[in-house]
Structure formats: structure tokens, C-alpha cells
Write a structure and sequence with these properties.
266 residues, alpha+beta, nine-stranded mixed beta sheet, 6 helices, 11 strands, 22% strand
Length: 266
């Protein structure tokens, strides 16, 4: 083999190695629009977004002793107790999801534990938080879900709706997302609300598919969605959960020592 052939072979091997390395790095970060799975609510990106309050959100009144601020947030400063109680009072849906707003963002950054064990209507369940915004300039509707991980609220799910007009646009969207995330996500041929069963089986970290029925007669009724999930929560996905399809099981909450301290009688 001549020296020239050796050099050519070496160059080809280097190019193949570079392409393989590039392919392996695709989708290593599960991020969308600057938000990443596992990111803390303390990140600067949360300050850059105009958070929306969804229709149907309402203020929930404290109905039991355990939800009173001085009991639910024992160990926090008196000011933080007040702000946190106010922040978690805004809920949405039958799952009692808490809403991130530009007003309560700072308070939720102090949320590291809670002594109320009956949140979300389940004893020992953990709260789920989400924020809704429209990306600029596309105006795509995006939902960022957070839960308490290692003492602070962190992103465990990101979902975005993509409007499209025909099958070709849907295929084009799928190709763009595949080039971004590689084999990390499942490209689902059916309604995305049914995708979580295959996500569990195929060990994917998200999915992309139609979120509404394909209806060529009504262009406003055509949308697809991308959902990215924390790989650590994949084993907790509930394929039979209704109506929260693909939601994760509540985790048992380990109450911190602060919750065992006595509260002065009022």
C-alpha cells in the first residue's frame, strides 16, 4: 500500500469517526428553546419568558390544618411561608397542577420541601408545577413541567405544539426534530396521546406525533406535539392513566426534619 493510499484511508477513517461522533452527540441534551430537562427553576431562562395563566386556573383556598402556611412550610422564614402559600394556591385541572407565573417565580425558587402530605389530592404525593408560554417569534405554545428533585424544582417534562397544514409539513417537522434529537425520541405515526406505551417499551426519552385528529377540512384543527421527558421518570410513566395520559406516578415524599418540629399554639 502506497503512502498516498494510507493517507487516503486515514482521512476516510477520520471522517467516518467524526461523523459517528457527531451522530452520537445529537440529542445528548434534551433541550428545547433554551429549556433543558433537569434544569433548575433558578436558571436565568425562566426570567426571560412571559408566563401565561391558562384559562380554568383558579385560586384554591386552604381547607385543612395541614395546608396552613405556618404548618405546610415549617422551617421557612415567616415571609417565605406567606409567599409560598400564595404561590401554590393557584392550581389548574383535576390534577391540581400548580402554575408558574412571573409573579410567583421568585417565591417558587425558595420551594425546597413541604410538610403538607396531602397535596395534589393524594397522601404522600408530590406537587407538579408547570409554566406555559408562547415562543418568539413563532408563537408556538410550550409547556415546561417541573417537580421537586433533590430539594429544588427542576424540569422533568417539556411539551410543544406545532401547527401544520398538510402531511408534507408534518413530515418536514419530524425530519427537523429527528436531526436535532436523533434516536432519543419516538416518531409516532398515530395520535401522540397514545405514544407513552411505546415510549416505555422502546426506552425513548420523548415522542413526536399528531396531537389532534388530522382534518384537512379544518386547518385550525391540525397540530402535532413534541414531548421530552426526564429519562429517570420513564419507568414511572403510567400507560393506563386517565385523563393524564402518559403522566408519571406520584412519588412518596420523604419529609425533612423541619416538618417534625413543634408549632406554637395560636
Amino acid at each position: 500500500m502506497t503512502a498516498l493510499r494510507i493517507i487516503r484511508c486515514a482521512c476516510i477513517l477520520w471522517l467516518l469517526s467524526a461523523q459517528l461522533s457527531s451522530a452520537q452527540t445529537i440529542g445528548q441534551e434534551l433541550c428545547l428553546d433554551g429549556f433543558c430537562i433537569g434544569e433548575s427553576i433558578k436558571g436565568a431562562r425562566f426570567d426571560e419568558v412571559k408566563w401565561l395563566v391558562p384559562k380554568g386556573a383558579y385560586k384554591e383556598s386552604c381547607a385543612g390544618v395541614g395546608c396552613r402556611s405556618q404548618i405546610a412550610f415549617r422551617g421557612y422564614s415567616e415571609e417565605d411561608q406567606k409567599h409560598l402559600a400564595e404561590a401554590i394556591s393557584i392550581v389548574y385541572g383535576i390534577g391540581h397542577y400548580n402554575i408558574i407565573t412571573n409573579t410567583n417565580l421568585d417565591a417558587l425558587r425558595h420551594y425546597s420541601y413541604e410538610c403538607n402530605l396531602s397535596q395534589r389530592g393524594a397522601v404522600g404525593g408530590d406537587r407538579r408545577f408547570f409554566g406555559v408560554y408562547r415562543s418568539l417569534p413563532s408563537q408556538y405554545l410550550t409547556v415546561v413541567g417541573l417537580r421537586l428533585i433533590s430539594g429544588e424544582l427542576k424540569v422533568y417534562r417539556i411539551a410543544r405544539q406545532y401547527p401544520f397544514h398538510n402531511q408534507n409539513e408534518l413530515i418536514s417537522l419530524a425530519r427537523k426534530l429527528q436531526s436535532q434529537y436523533g434516536d432519543k425520541i419516538l416518531l409516532y405515526n398515530y395520535l401522540s396521546s397514545n405514544a407513552y406505551s411505546d415510549v416505555i417499551e422502546q426506552k425513548k426519552n420523548g415522542w413526536f406525533g399528531r396531537s389532534t385528529m388530522f382534518n384537512p377540512m379544518d386547518l385550525s384543527d391540525i397540530a402535532a406535539e413534541l414531548v421530552l421527558i426526564d429519562p429517570r421518570t420513564r419507568p414511572l410513566l403510567e400507560p393506563a392513566s386517565i385523563p393524564e395520559s402518559g403522566e408519571i406516578k406520584p412519588l412518596a415524599v420523604m419529609t425533612p426534619d423541619q416538618c417534625s418540629t413543634s408549632v406554637p399554639l395560636q
